[in-house]
C-alpha cells in the first residue's frame, strides 16, 4: 500500500482562503488502486472524512477532527474521435484551468469560457461550475465515480444522471458521501462554436484588437476579465464567488424590478429569473467593507476575502452579515457557494 498517513496536518496551504486549520489525520490518494485500502483503513472507518480537491470552494472555521483525504489523481486521455467531436477524460485531481488550457492546445474546444476557474476537475460536476454563459454540464458526457460504500467499485453516471442545476448536482444531495468523483469525461469539438455575447467578453476582445476571435482569444479575454475583477488567492485569500446568484419567480422578479429598475437579471430555462447577487450586495453599501481582516472585495462584491489573519468564523460572520443586509433590503436570501465547516 502506497498510502501514507500523518497526524496534525496543516491545512492552510490546501485551502484558497488561507485559513489556519489543521486536520487530525491526512493522506493523499494519488493512485486509484489504493482506494480500497483507504476505505478499509481504521482512520477512514472511524471518521469523519473530508475529501479535498483544490480547496477553492471551502471555508474552514475550525480544525478538522477526522481524516482529510486529498484527491491527487492525475491523467488526461483522448477516448473517442468522431468527425469533429472528441471525448476526453480527465482525472479528478487535475487542475481545472490547466486542463482547459491543455484542451485548447490540442484543438478541443468548448471550455474556453470556463478559463481560470479555480479548483480541480473532480469538483467541476459537483458544483456544475459556470461562467460567461457556459456551464460545465453543457460539455460533460459522463462522470466516473467510486462507490464509497461498495469498496470503491466504479460507477459511471451520464449527464442526465447527475441532475445538474444552477451550481447544483446530485453530488450535493443523494450522492453526497456515497460517491467519489474519480474522473470526468467531456464531449468537445474540433470546430469552434464561440460564445462571446455574455458579460464583457466582446468588449475585451475589442480592447485586445481581435475582430475574428479564436477559442484561444476567448480564453485570453476571459482570463483578462477575471484577473481584472477577481483577486488572486495566492495574494489575497478567497474562494471566488462566495454567494450564488439567487433565482426567483418571474412575479417576484417583476416586483423587484418595479422598485429597482437597474437590477441586472437573466431569464432561466425553467421560466424563473436569476438576479445578480453582486449588485444586490453593492446596493447595500457593502462592496469594499472590511471588519478586521475579513472583508468584501473592493472590485467584486460577490467575493469575500481574507486580508491576512482572518479566522474562518470571522469570514462566516461577515457572510451572515451580507445575507442579512440583502434580505432586509430586497427580501432575497443569498445562499453561500462554498462548503462551510
Automatic annotation (TrEMBL):
It holds the Pfam family MurB_C. One of its GO terms (molecular function) is UDP-N-acetylmuramate dehydrogenase activity. Its cofactor is FAD. This is UDP-N-acetylenolpyruvoylglucosamine reductase. It comes from the Bacteria. The gene is murB. The keyword Cell cycle applies. Belongs to the MurB family. Its main location: cytoplasm. Keywords: Cell cycle, Cell division, Cell shape, Cell wall biogenesis/degradation, Cytoplasm, FAD, Flavoprotein, NADP, Oxidoreductase, Peptidoglycan synthesis. It is found in: Cytoplasm. NCBIfam families: murB, PRK00046.1, PRK13903.1. Its EC number is 1.3.1.98. Cell wall formation. Residues 19-191 form the FAD-binding PCMH-type domain. One of its GO terms (biological process) is cell wall organization.
Amino acid at each position: 500500500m502506497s498510502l501514507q498517513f500523518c497526524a496534525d496536518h496543516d491545512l492552510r496551504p490546501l485551502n484558497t482562503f488561507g485559513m489556519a486549520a489543521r486536520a487530525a489525520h491526512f493522506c493523499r490518494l494519488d493512485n486509484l488502486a489504493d482506494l480500497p485500502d483507504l476505505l478499509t483503513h481504521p482512520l477512514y472507518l472511524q471518521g469523519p472524512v473530508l475529501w479535498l480537491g483544490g480547496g477553492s470552494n471551502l471555508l474552514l472555521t475550525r480544525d478538522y477532527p477526522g481524516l482529510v483525504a486529498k484527491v491527487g489523481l492525475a491523467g488526461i486521455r483522448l477516448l473517442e474521435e468522431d468527425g469533429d467531436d472528441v471525448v476526453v477524460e480527465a482525472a479528478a485531481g487535475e487542475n481545472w484551468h490547466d486542463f482547459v488550457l491543455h484542451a485548447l492546445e490540442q484543438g478541443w474546444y468548448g471550455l474556453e469560457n470556463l478559463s481560470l476557474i479555480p479548483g480541480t476537475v473532480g469538483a467541476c460536476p459537483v458544483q456544475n461550475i459556470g461562467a460567461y454563459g457556459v456551464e460545465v454540464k453543457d460539455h460533460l458526457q459522463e462522470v466516473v465515480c467510486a462507490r464509497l460504500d461498495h469498496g470503491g467499485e466504479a460507477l459511471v453516471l451520464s449527464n442526465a444522471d447527475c441532475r445538474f442545476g444552477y451550481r447544483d448536482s446530485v453530488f450535493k444531495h443523494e450522492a453526497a458521501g456515497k460517491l467519489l468523483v474519480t474522473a470526468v469525461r467531456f464531449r468537445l469539438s474540433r470546430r469552434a462554436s464561440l460564445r462571446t455575447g455574455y458579460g464583457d467578453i466582446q468588449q475585451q476582445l475589442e480592447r485586445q484588437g481581435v475582430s475574428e476571435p479564436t477559442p484561444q482569444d476567448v480564453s485570453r479575454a476571459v482570463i483578462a476579465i477575471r484577473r481584472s475583477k477577481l483577486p488572486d488567492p495566492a495574494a489575497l485569500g478567497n474562494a471566488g464567488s462566495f454567494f450564488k446568484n439567487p433565482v426567483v419567480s418571474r412575479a417576484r422578479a417583476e416586483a423587484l424590478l418595479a422598485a429597482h429598475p437597474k437590477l441586472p437579471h437573466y431569464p432561466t430555462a425553467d421560466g424563473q429569473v436569476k438576479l445578480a447577487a453582486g449588485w444586490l450586495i453593492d446596493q447595500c453599501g457593502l462592496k469594499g467593507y472590511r471588519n478586521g481582516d475579513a472583508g468584501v472585495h473592493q472590485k467584486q462584491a460577490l467575493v469575500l476575502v481574507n486580508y491576512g489573519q482572518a479566522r474562518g468564523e470571522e469570514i462566516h460572520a461577515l457572510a451572515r452579515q451580507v445575507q442579512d443586509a440583502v434580505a432586509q433590503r430586497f427580501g432575497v436570501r443569498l445562499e453561500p457557494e462554498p462548503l462551510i465547516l
